[in-house]
Amino acid sequence: MRCRGVVAAIITLAAFSLNAQAQDVEAGKKKAEACVACHGPNGNSQVGTFPVLAGQSDRYLYLQLRDYKEGRRSNPIMSGIAAGMEKQDMKDLAAYFSKQKQERTGFKSEMPRVEAGAKKAEESLCAMCHLGGMKGQNEVPRLAGQHPDYIITQLKSFKARERTNDAGNMTSLAQTLSEEDMLNLAHWISNLH
């Protein structure tokens, strides 16, 4: 009996401790006010060079912010912004953006490119990591509905080995892609919802 009471107390204390460090969506909303200029209201970027953050997994968003802060991913704007963030700031922002509803970007995909992109994605086994419909999971980003310009830029960065915070998976895959493949994949991905 006594042992169960101690275990229950430990579990309660651990849950309270975890809650104190948990992600705070409301705090993230306040912190995200500075992000609107590039990433748009609620993380729905209106500019193709800035990624849509709405609906992205909180784990992925947190890791990207951490990688910017620690120099594993580089961008003149984001590296500078992340440098001043604390771990809790990153968790709060990730929680906020992950809870937002992704909206359509308004990009009009060309159907022949969508079909070619779908074929290339199947051939490249994209769904093994990004899941069906490119919904993403944990550390693997949601790609569905993302801006094509952003997708192409990231694929080119992986191919040029300018972006390397991927454990080598995307870097290896990108080596096999032509610019035409990248364009087709971007049309296909942006067409998914």
Tell me what the structure shows:
Helix 4 runs antiparallel to helix 6. The protein has helices at about 1-20, 25-30, 35-40, 60-70, 75-85, 85-100, 110-125, 125-130, 150-160, 170-175, 180-190. By secondary structure, the chain is mostly helical. It has 11 helices and no strands. The N and C termini lie far apart (about 55 Å). It folds into 2 domains: about 20-100, Cytochrome c-like domain (Cytochrome Bc1 Complex, Chain D, domain 2), CATH 1.10.760.10; about 110-190, Cytochrome Bc1 Complex, Chain D, domain 2 (Orthogonal Bundle). The longest helix has 20 residues, at about 1-20. The protein is globular.
Outline of the structure:
This protein is mostly helical. The protein has eleven helices and no strands.
Q: What is CATH's topology name of the largest domain?
A: Cytochrome Bc1 Complex, Chain D, domain 2
Oligomer: single chain
Strand residue percentage: under 5%
Number of strands: 0
Structural classification: mainly alpha
Residue stretches low in confidence (pLDDT < 50, at least 5 long) are 2-21
- Overall helicity: 55-70%
Average pLDDT figure = 90
Quote the distance from N terminus to C terminus: 53 Å
SSE arrangement, N to C: HHHHHHHHHHH
Global Rg:
19 Å
Per CATH, the architecture of the largest domain is: Orthogonal Bundle
For this structure, what is the CATH homologous superfamily of the largest domain?
Cytochrome c-like domain
